[in-house]
């Protein structure tokens, strides 16, 4: 069964202030607030295609801080989504939203439960108090812990979102954030390397030279490690990097943005594993067995893995072996 989200963006509305990095309208490509009729039209238009492809979907309210918007507006959006979940359960399986950790309490969870909410994602961004302060998040790591525990206790699926390379950030802080997410037993995680946008406070700090974010290669190394950590903890990383967006590309000043970022990070994991295994086996020429789905990750984007391993004195050929993630032996 295929699963997807039908994303509905509610940009900025509900946020108590703008964080140093934030421009939700550019990130989402959305300029106006959706009405219940807009949502109904979107969901109705998707029904035929989803049924035809055998795909089920969650209705997802992203952007801004959904549980912080005006209560009547929030329930009107939820009511429309819930109608489609109850009338078309063969297609729409639930509702999810993203919000701030400090906008979760028992009353809010009562409302979300009443309208069939299934998953709540928290924009934690970091579990380092100083990084949160420098980036004007307005909440603490303790708020993330409190909200996460409330969400889990009420039976919702818990999603946690983190950013890397924020103002004042360090790789070890990001590793610490991932460790806390694992301790909180997140059901899903999203990882967003910082993209510096013109018109934001981070953009001004970047242009002044006061702020330098992680390099692309440092980010790939870090995110590869994060993927391994969450994989070992059996926590799916459902997104790594921002969605491709013309608005982001036009306003981007710096940071890390690439449409194939996840595959590049996964390819780095293969590179590290191949390098270690080739060193362990010994020799210079190898056969790498892998499932056809992994071939591009084994070779790397623009054959980067071949080049890096060649620099270490290793050569290899690939043989496809269905069901095999990675197996290496000396070439005869």
What features would you describe in this structure?
Residues 24-30 have low confidence and may be disordered. Helix 9 crosses helix 11 (261-281). It is built from 13 helices and twelve strands. The chain has a seven-stranded parallel beta sheet with strand order 1-2-3-4-5-6-8. Strands 11-10-12 form a three-stranded mixed beta sheet, covered by helices on one side. Strands 7-9 form a two-stranded antiparallel sheet. The protein folds into two domains: 2-259, Alpha-Beta Barrel (TIM Barrel); 267-330, GMP Synthetase, Chain A, domain 3 (2-Layer Sandwich). The protein starts with a strand and ends with a strand. The protein is globular and about 70 Å long. 44% of the residues lie in helices and 22% in strands. It has 332 residues and is of the alpha/beta class.
Short account of what is shown:
With 332 residues, the protein is α/β, with parallel strands linked by helices. It has 13 helices and twelve strands.
Q: Tell me the major beta sheet.
A: 7 strands, parallel
The tally of structural domains comes to 2
Q: Could you say what the CATH topology of the largest domain is called?
A: TIM Barrel
What is the C-level CATH assignment of the largest domain? Alpha Beta
Helix-strand sequence: EHHEHEHEHHEHEEHHEHEHEHHEE
What low-confidence regions span 5 or more consecutive residues with pLDDT below 50?
24-30
Distance from first to last alpha carbon: 43 Å
Shape: globular
- Described by its quaternary structure, the protein is single chain
CATH architect. name of the largest domain: Alpha-Beta Barrel
Counting DSSP E segments of at least 2 residues, the number of strands comes to 12
Share of β-strand residues: 15-25%
Helix content: 40-55%
- What structural class do the secondary elements suggest? alpha/beta
Mean pLDDT: 93
Using the CA coordinates, give the radius of gyration.
Answer: 22 Å
- The CATH superfamily name of the largest domain is Aldolase class I
Widest sheet: strand order? 1-2-3-4-5-6-8
| Count of alpha/pi helices | 13
């Amino acid at each position: 069964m295929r699963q997807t989200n039908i994303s509905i963006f509610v940009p900025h509305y509900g946020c108590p202030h703008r964080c140093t990095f934030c421009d939700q309208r550019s990130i989402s490509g959305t300029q106006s607030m959706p009405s219940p009729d807009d949502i109904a039209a979107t969901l109705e238009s998707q029904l035929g295609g989803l049924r035809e492809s055998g795909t089920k979907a969650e209705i997802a309210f992203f952007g801004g801080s959904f549980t912080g918007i005006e209560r009547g507006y929030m329930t009107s959006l939820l009511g429309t989504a819930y109608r489609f979940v109850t009338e078309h359960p063969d297609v729409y399986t639930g509702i999810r939203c993203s919000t701030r950790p400090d906008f979760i309490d028992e009353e809010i969870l009562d409302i979300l439960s009443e309208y069939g909410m299934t998953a709540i994602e928290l924009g934690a961004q970091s579990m380092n108090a100083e990084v949160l302060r420098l980036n004007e998040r307005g909440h603490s790591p303790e708020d993330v812990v409190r909200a996460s525990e409330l969400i889990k206790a009420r039976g919702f699926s818990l999603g946690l979102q983190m950013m890397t390379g924020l103002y004042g950030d360090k790789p070890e802080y990001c590793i610490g954030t991932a460790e806390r997410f694992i301790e909180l037993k997140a059901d899903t995680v999203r990882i967003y390397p910082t993209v510096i946008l013109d018109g934001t406070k981070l953009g001004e700090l970047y242009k002044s030279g006061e702020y330098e974010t992680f390099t692309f290669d440092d980010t790939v190394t870090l995110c590869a490690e994060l993927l391994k950590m969450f994989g070992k903890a059996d926590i799916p990383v459902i997104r790594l990097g921002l969605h491709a967006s013309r608005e982001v590309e036009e306003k981007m000043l710096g940071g890390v943005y690439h449409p194939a970022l996840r595959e590049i990070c996964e390819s780095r994991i293969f590179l590290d594993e191949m390098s270690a295994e080739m060193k362990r086996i010994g020799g210079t020429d190898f056969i790498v067995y892998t499932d056809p789905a992994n071939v591009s990750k084994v070779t790397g984007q623009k054959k980067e893995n071949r080049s890096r391993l060649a620099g270490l004195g290793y050569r290899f050929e690939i043989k496809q072996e269905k069901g095999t993630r990675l197996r290496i032996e000396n070439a005869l």
